[in-house]
Here is the input.
Amino acid sequence: MTELYDKIAVIGIGLIGASIALAARHGGLAKAISSFDADPAARSEAKQIGLPVEIQDNLADAVSDAELVILAIPVGAMAKVAEDMAPYLAPGAVVTDTGSTKRSVIRDVAPKLPETAWFIPGHPLAGTEFSGPASGFPNLFKQRYWLLIDEGNVEPAAKEKLESFCAQLGAMVEWMDSDYHDRVLAITSHLPHLIAYTIVGTAVDLETDLKNDVIRFSASGFRDFTRIASSDPTMWRDIFMSNDEAVLEMLQRFSEDLSYLQRAIRWQEGDKLFDLFTRTRAIRRSIISEGQDN
Amino acid sequence: MTELYDKIAVIGIGLIGASIALAARHGGLAKAISSFDADPAARSEAKQIGLPVEIQDNLADAVSDAELVILAIPVGAMAKVAEDMAPYLAPGAVVTDTGSTKRSVIRDVAPKLPETAWFIPGHPLAGTEFSGPASGFPNLFKQRYWLLIDEGNVEPAAKEKLESFCAQLGAMVEWMDSDYHDRVLAITSHLPHLIAYTIVGTAVDLETDLKNDVIRFSASGFRDFTRIASSDPTMWRDIFMSNDEAVLEMLQRFSEDLSYLQRAIRWQEGDKLFDLFTRTRAIRRSIISEGQDN
Here is the structure.
């Protein structure tokens, strides 16, 4: 319950932006919270549900005088928004983002900002398969990691304040570099999403009877994939376009491993399957003991 | 709350067997429930947790005089158990199973049974990633589908009684043929498990630092895969060995679809990704409206 900023601006009022606004308001972290979304429908929805922020009708009003600007938008939109808002940023303003890829965001945003602003890229590891202002909730970040990228040229006080802000939203903050971030996310998030989208797509293309029964009898396994594969299409298209290098590297490894199992099935080599299935169980236990699931 | 059988035998006291025993006892569906597991540790655990059945020390005692025998064992164990129990089956006994593949079970079990027994293969679409007697619970089958296979040579009264038994365990019964069952399950369950095992295996093989951070930061996407990939290794090895034909067919389709997306990522064709990601969202809505998830 520390008021850290006089004014913050949340740009993009989707699941993440709305949740940040709600959590910041609940925590009393800023005197004023200003918000803008390029989509008029999102602005209307935010007003209609009474999101406790000032919804602005243009980006300039939202960011002017803000000490902290949070870009909670698809990574493909970062370059344009950074360029558009740059002239209106207050001197000393800290800009952060919540995008799922970090190298592309640094490439797209950093060169556009004035020298008087600090850029600290970020990424909260939190979300649901829902999107839009009405899907936000203030506890989204509770006990979730929030990764911050230290590009080395930001004054320590600005970094400490942002870290404190994220922590008071409920998150556990970790600092890392952007290359490493993009590789970790490629395997923990991007590849799983790509695979889930693929298998659900494979099912969509089955002949009609079979497809209908796949939907009816989805109870085991497939259902989890459909949840993942119902995430926001724009956001995910942008992620794959932006983290293509790391995703393609992990995908190559995955494809080799899948071919190995495919061959084991074809040649009835059950011991190879059993061996892998035993090793993968151990990973689950590690995750449970890390407290990241229950 | 109808007592349908004087005595039933549940062979295999894992997640499924223990849950059937508990649900049948709670529902008062049989006067006596006899049970056997080839693994002495499972028999001890079942006794220790007070599973409300008579645990027998051999298969013959478990099945003798039983009107219904339920084989809740890995599909790779079906042939041997069917052969071993055949001499002890009561005339007119109904044998069913809970295996995830049906063509292989029919091939392995049907020829071993005496002509005086009826075989009605079955498959409850229910489970968790846990295994063993202590993972069973009586509500496991509630509102889940229970697929029964009509091989055409079973007397109607026996089929009706088994259907009623499954329904009173809480399940929704559907009849289908074994070929169709194996194709539907290949895409809804077997392929998702294979893929989840693969990607978790890919992560296991990463260099140590990266692997540890994959575990720490598993919050989005990957975590769901680790849950799926912690299912019982013996059961799943047997499934892939037994449903190899349908799994390899679906895997081929999946691999083609994945290559298409891989190429789209490499060539920055975002519209192809966006198009698929939009179509897969619709499937999720269908599943939610079918009431198979919430």
